[in-house]
Design goal:
The complex is a heterodimer.
Chain A lengths: L20 H4 L2 H14 L5 E3 L5 E4 L13 E6 L2 E7 L8 H134 L5 H13 L2 H33 L7 E3 L1 H11 L9 E5 L6 E3 L1 H18 L5 E9 L2 E7 L30 H11 L3 E6 L5 E8 L10
Parallel strand pairs in A: 6-8
Antiparallel strand pairs in A: 1-2, 1-4, 3-4, 5-7, 8-9, 9-11, 10-11
Helix pairs in contact in A: 2-3, 3-4, 3-5, 5-6, 6-7, 7-8
Chain B lengths: L2 E3 L4 E9 L6 H11 L9 E2 L2 E2 L2 E2 L3 E8 L5 E8 L7 H8 L4 E7 L5 H17 L9 E6 L9 H9 L5 E3 L8 H20 L1 H5 L3 H8 L5
Parallel strand pairs in B: 2-7, 2-8, 8-9, 9-10
Antiparallel strand pairs in B: 1-2, 3-6, 4-5, 6-7
Helix pairs in contact in B: 5-7
The chains are: A alpha+beta, B alpha/beta.
Chain lengths: ~450, ~220
């Protein structure tokens, strides 16, 4: 027995089953013809099956048909499925023969048409049933998958929420890491810068310590001589000899230089620390009034050591109104923009920092003469994790951090072409902000 | 096989003309009806069509009697080629003793031929017939048309399968009888193995083919 793809047994309707004349031709349909034929002169005409058994007849008062009786076949699918038979001894003649042939042809045509109708009906029913079964099957599987999707949809929302929270936490961590990395790079440079003066301050102090020991030594001798009462010639000679042996004249002169240098060194360290504090605004909580020109200078001063010789930084500042903001955040932004320019071009970099007021906004432009940013990437470069650098060389968060700082302030940041080639990052910051622009 | 009654000495066989829509299946039967002798066959029964396309099937019955007295009736059917009539194709294919696959020789129809042949394989497996055991004959029809696959290419494609390939133009009336004969002979081989036509019924391959495929006039 045939089975379908899932192994279910399935009965398939088979075209071609044989049919007996009795199944094709109902007696009621044949009877009318037979009785008409009988009235027309075929008295006693009957229909017999291929085995000679009488099926239907026009009257009861005639003998059963026998072999050799006048007969004509009724054809079904080209085969004799039965015959019309006249009783033995029935009157012969042309009219009889013609009538018998006419009757057989009529019954053949009737059977043929009935068979066609039956086959069409059977096939049609099979197709309808099969389609219905397939629809039921489809309906079953659709219901099952609908149920699955319903369940999925129920949990999906929760899953999406969880995953979104996870992602925003991870993103926040990465942004924080990016900020720390930028500060870390700065710290490394600053440490190097502090190390230099610190080294010679330490070395000077060591020398001064030795000098101090000698001074104390000679002072002790003077003290002994004075306590013994009187300064004999020999004592004076001894003291002079000792002073010479200690090279006190030379070191007295040197001590002054050392002290001056040492003070210069500590001043340099103080200045660096002060720059750093100014840059980071570490003592300020939240917003503070700031002059952006001054903040840019602060950034440049902490970056001094990062900027190689040969890089031209041009300041074209116009006086700016003081605006309340988080200056530490902006300094970080400026730092990032200067560093981007430094990475964009190694040799012959010229970075012009231009500030000014345009309407009710402060406009700050950092224009470099590097390779520039292709037009199709201009909005994408601010997207998180977008980077044109090699894998491992950049996380693609630097400009995202910049974008967040500026938009939190109610401002905009965009990139344009520098006339003559290069990229210009333009910040526009509102001088006065509405209450809805509170800094995050 | 539709029916075998050994007491009644009666056997009903089924041949099916399969293939893509409009490849000439009904035309094949019309030509067989015209070309083969009236004595050995019945009339062509064409069930309702729509716009002259087969939607059910056509039937052409043939008759022969073996020397043993076994009466054999061979019912030759076409299937509707259009994709949507798949349920009808399965019903016609059920218990088939042989299949003639009528392909359209035009290059543009290659994809339809392949899809229809895939459909035949799938339906054979659904109705429980193994394609490797089924007597199958291929006919590349419409050889009278331009832009057709060259014979060499057809032979190369099907050579390895061992299925007989007949080229034809049913419209012009050639290749049709050859296809039917090839199918009859393949079917005979399968039936002889199972029912011992030669021994029990005195029916050789040649006489089976001769009695079934008798040219008119």
């Amino acid at each position: 027995m045939p089975t379908d793809s899932e192994g279910r047994r399935r009965i398939v309707y088979c075209v071609g089953e044989e049919h007996a004349l009795r199944d094709i031709l109902p007696e009621a349909e044949a009877a009318a013809l037979l009785s008409a034929a009988s009235r027309a002169g075929l008295r006693g005409v009957r229909v017999v099956d291929p085995g000679g058994k009488a099926l239907w007849g026009s009257g009861d008062d005639v003998p059963p048909p026998g072999e050799g009786d006048p007969r004509r076949p009724i054809l079904l699918e080209g085969e004799a499925a039965g015959s019309v038979v006249l009783p033995a001894g029935a009157a012969g003649g042309e009219t009889q023969d013609a009538l018998l042939a006419l009757l057989a042809d009529a019954l053949t045509a009737m059977a043929h048409n009935n068979l066609k109708r039956m086959l069409v009906t059977e096939t049609h029913t099979e197709v309808v049933n099969r389609s219905y079964e397939e629809l039921l099957e489809t309906n079953r599987s659709l219901s099952a998958s609908e149920q699955r999707y319903r369940e999925l949809a129920g949990t999906l929302e929760i899953k999406v929420r969880e995953r979104t929270e996870e992602l925003s936490r991870a993103m926040a961590r990465l942004v924080q890491q990016e900020k720390m990395a930028s500060v870390g790079q700065l710290a490394a440079g600053v440490a190097h810068e502090i190390n230099n003066p610190l080294a010679f301050v330490t070395s000077n102090l060591r020398t001064l310590k030795k000098y101090t020991e000698r001074f104390l030594d000679i002072i002790a001798r003077y003290q002994r001589v004075f306590e013994q009462g009187g300064v004999a010639q020999q004592d004076r000679d001894d003291l002079r000899k000792h002073r010479v042996s200690l090279r006190l004249d030379a070191i007295s002169e040197d001590a002054g230089d050392l002290l001056r240098q040492t003070l210069e060194g500590t001043e340099r360290v103080r200045k660096i620390v002060s720059d750093l504090k100014g840059f980071s605004h570490v003592d300020e909580e939240g917003e503070a009034p700031a002059d952006m020109n001054r903040e840019i200078d602060r950034t440049l001063s902490v970056m001094r050591h990062e900027i190689p010789a040969g890089v031209g930084i041009v300041r074209e500042f116009s006086p700016l109104p003081v605006i309340p903001c988080r200056p530490g955040a902006f300094n970080q932004l400026f730092l990032g923009l200067v560093r981007n320019a430094l990475q964009a071009r190694q040799e012959g970099l010229r970075l012009t920092l231009r500030t000014g007021v345009s309407g009710d906004r402060i406009r700050i432009a950092f224009a470099d003469n590097g390779p520039g940013v292709p037009a199709d990437l201009r909005t994408r470069i601010f997207e998180p994790f977008f980077t044109t650098r090699d894998v491992g060389k950049g996380k693609g968060l630097g400009l995202t951090v910049a974008y967040d700082i500026v938009t939190a302030h109610g401002g905009t940041i965009e990139v344009e072409d520098t006339p003559g080639g290069g990229a210009t990052f333009v910040l526009q910051l509102p001088i006065r902000r509405g209450s809805h622009d509170q800094i995050r | 096989m539709i029916e075998y009654d050994s007491e009644d000495q009666r056997m009903i066989l089924k041949f099916v003309y399969y293939g893509p829509a409009l490849s000439g299946k009904t035309t094949n039967l019309l030509r067989l009806h015209d070309l083969l002798a009236k004595e050995g066959r019945g009339d062509l029964m064409v069930l309702d069509t729509k716009d002259d396309r087969t939607i059910f099937f056509d039937l052409l019955p043939f008759f022969l009697v073996a020397p043993s007295g076994l009466k054999i009736k061979v019912k030759v059917y076409t299937v509707p080629g259009q994709v949507q009539h798949d349920a009808t194709r399965k019903a016609v294919l059920q218990r088939a003793d042989g299949v003639a696959f009528i392909a359209d020789s035009r290059r543009s129809e290659a994809k339809n031929n392949a899809e229809s042949f895939g459909n035949l394989e799938r339906n054979l497996s659904i109705v429980g017939i193994g394609i490797d055991k089924l007597p199958l004959v291929l006919q590349y029809n419409k050889r009278d048309l331009p832009d057709i696959l060259p014979e060499e290419e057809i032979r190369r494609t099907w050579g390895a399968t061992g299925f007989p390939v007949v080229l034809s133009s049913a419209l012009e009336g050639w290749g049709v009888v050859e296809t039917f004969r090839a199918l009859a002979e393949r079917a005979y081989d399968a039936l002889d193995r199972r029912y011992d036509f030669t021994g029990t019924h005195g029916l050789t391959r040649g006489s089976f083919s001769e009695r079934l495929v008798r040219r008119a006039g």
